[in-house]
């Protein structure tokens, strides 16, 4: 017998909202298809209320010394640490990543919060000499005010930490909107906000679709900065809507990272990195290896090794940490399957996967086998479109220059991988590969002190590190005369 889905509320002005809502969003477990949780489908009025509350709380929050704001953030991080296992399990249930991946996500969230809190004593302005005697010219850094954080489904908790930590330490308040498919950890995170005693209204959280609630948050004149992690399509709609009030934007959008392997690469290391960077989180990381561009001289050996390595990837219950979990949404899975079918129809060969795994445990839920497509070309659907799933198209190239041309022909430019021992080629890439992040002879792991940003259609602004913190501050110039 199925149990009643557990209800998780929204959070506005320190109050729990939505228990009386008949309009609810059902949350499915991607591994089983079971509806296990429900959340309120907020109204536009509630989104507006969250913004007004955020606005009312903002100046007092800004007026606190940054170290006092940081203390709240440390407290939140400590509480998250104490409940790491609880949050990790919720992530598995709502998003489908394995328990170990979920534990890593909780740690990542703690890192984002702690790093932000540490920045409290480094919010620095500048003093310049004046052109007149007895005057000062000072540039202060001030918060934007009310900010909105719109999160993607692939890292429901880490993306909250990545946005909220920097927003709060710099004196902004924030209205969060998780993805409607993965809203549970956001609700539980707000429980921590409540227990940590943050002033009412500093953090608010509403749930609803992007088209309705996300759009209302973006369009409001109260909102002074929107930070969104999501698709290019959503980013474009948000840009258009933000134009009316000239709202500041930080857009972390989709990409299609090429994984370039040249003929002098350390093949074993490149294979391992290529596989991890494709199948981690079931292929749902924005900086995932979306297409392998491998030199024809080493392509067969590389492919053989990749296929052998993939045979070792087990698919199964993410809570049991068996191996790869399911895709988060049924819609995402249908899209992945469609891309594979189109690519095969265009002439590529399926070397493995391309279907739902067999067995009773895979009959429900969003399962897909690890898939490799050979003989793909630069014009294949799987090479052109972002897959965001466990599918690796492999394209043979004849030179570094050809790989560069394929990569740079794209309209997006989030990240890329380059495997070569030739320093002239990787130094060339630094100046010519049109993406925000290049991993050279390295796998998918980035660090918080770096900067995560997309070039071209992959985004505006960015997150992490000193530049990420800076993104939540605007400048105010003061001319101090002594008349
Ligand atoms: N560059 C980066 O840091 C990352 C980018 N992504 C990208 O995100 C995509 C997958 O994530 P999804 O959750 O499916 O993205 P999505 O674009 O569907 O949604 C992202 C968030 O924006 C909201 N939203 C959507 N349309 C909106 C609109 N018109 N106005 C206001 N809000 C709106 C959604 O409700 C959600 O909260 C992929 O393309 C992936 O590459 C994912 C993770 C990181
Ligand atoms: O943006 C991504 O998908 C990654 O940068 C991912 O997002 C939050 C996690 O901490 C990162 O690994």
From TrEMBL:
Family: Belongs to the aldehyde dehydrogenase family.
Enzyme active site: 252
InterPro entries (alphabetical): Ald_DH/histidinol_DH (IPR016161), Ald_DH_C (IPR016163), Ald_DH_CS_CYS (IPR016160), Ald_DH_CS_GLU (IPR029510), Ald_DH_N (IPR016162), Aldehyde_DH_dom (IPR015590), Aldehyde_DH_Superfamily (IPR050740)
Regions that span the bilayer: none
SUPFAM superfamilies given in the database record: ALDH-like (SSF53720)
Domain spans labelled Aldehyde dehydrogenase: 16-478
Organism of provenance: Pontiella sulfatireligans
Gene Ontology BP terms: gamma-aminobutyric acid catabolic process
Entry keywords, A to Z: Oxidoreductase
A cellular component annotation (GO) from this entry: cytosol
Name of the protein this chain belongs to: Lactaldehyde dehydrogenase
Molecular function via GO: succinate-semialdehyde dehydrogenase (NAD+) activity
Xref: Pfam families: Aldedh
Upper lineage: Bacteria, Pseudomonadati, Kiritimatiellota, Kiritimatiellia, Kiritimatiellales
């Amino acid at each position: 017998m199925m149990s009643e889905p557990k209800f998780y509320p929204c959070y506005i002005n320190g109050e729990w909202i939505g228990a009386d809502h008949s309009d609810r969003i059902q949350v499915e477990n991607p591994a089983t298809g079971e509806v296990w949780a429900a959340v309120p489908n907020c109204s536009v009025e509630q989104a507006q209320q969250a913004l007004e509350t955020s606005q009312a709380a903002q100046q007092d929050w800004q007026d606190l010394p940054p170290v006092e704001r940081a203390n709240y953030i440390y407290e939140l991080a400590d509480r998250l640490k104490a409940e790491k296992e609880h949050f990790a399990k919720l992530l598995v249930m709502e998003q489908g990543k394995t328990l170990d991946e979920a534990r890593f996500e909780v740690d990542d969230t703690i890192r984002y919060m702690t790093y932000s809190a540490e920045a409290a004593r480094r919010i620095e302005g500048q003093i310049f000499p004046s052109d007149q005697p007895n005057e000062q010219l000072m540039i202060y850094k001030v918060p934007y005010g009310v900010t909105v954080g719109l999160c993607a489904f692939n890292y429901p908790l880490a993306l909250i930490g990545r946005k909220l930590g920097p927003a709060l330490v710099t004196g902004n308040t924030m209205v969060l909107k998780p993805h409607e498919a993965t809203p549970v950890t956001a609700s539980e995170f707000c429980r921590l906000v409540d227990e940590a005693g943050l002033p009412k209204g500093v953090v608010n959280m509403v749930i609803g679709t992007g088209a309705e609630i996300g759009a209302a948050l973006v369009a409001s004149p109260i909102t002074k900065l929107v930070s969104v992690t999501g698709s290019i399509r959503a980013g474009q709609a948000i840009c258009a809507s933000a134009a009316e009030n000239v709202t500041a934007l930080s857009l972390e959008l989709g990409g299609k990272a090429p994984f370039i392997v040249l003929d002098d690469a350390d093949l074993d290391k490149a294979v391992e990195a290529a596989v991890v960077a494709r199948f981690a989180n079931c292929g749902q990381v924005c900086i995932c290896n979306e297409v392998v561009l491998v030199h024809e001289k080493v392509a067969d050996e590389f492919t053989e090794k990749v296929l052998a390595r993939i045979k070792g990837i087990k698919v199964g219950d993410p809570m049991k940490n068996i191996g790869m979990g399911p895709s988060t949404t049924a819609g995402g899975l249908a899209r992945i399957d469609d891309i594979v079918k189109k690519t095969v129809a265009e002439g590529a060969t399926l070397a493995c996967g391309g279907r739902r795994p067999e067995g009773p445990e895979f009959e429900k839920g969003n399962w897909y086998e690890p898939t490799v497509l050979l003989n793909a070309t630069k014009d294949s659907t799987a090479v052109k479109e972002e897959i965001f799933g466990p599918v690796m198209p492999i394209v043979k190239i004849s030179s570094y220059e050809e790989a560069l041309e394929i990569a740079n022909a794209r309209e997006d430019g989030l990240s890329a991988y380059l495997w070569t021992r030739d320093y002239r080629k990787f130094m060339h890439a630094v100046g010519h590969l049109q993406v925000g992040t290049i991993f050279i002879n390295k796998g998918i792991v980035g660090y918080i002190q770096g900067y995560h940003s997309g070039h071209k259609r992959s985004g505006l602004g960015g997150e992490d590190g000193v530049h990420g913190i800076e993104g939540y501050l605007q400048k105010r110039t003061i001319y101090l005369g002594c008349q």
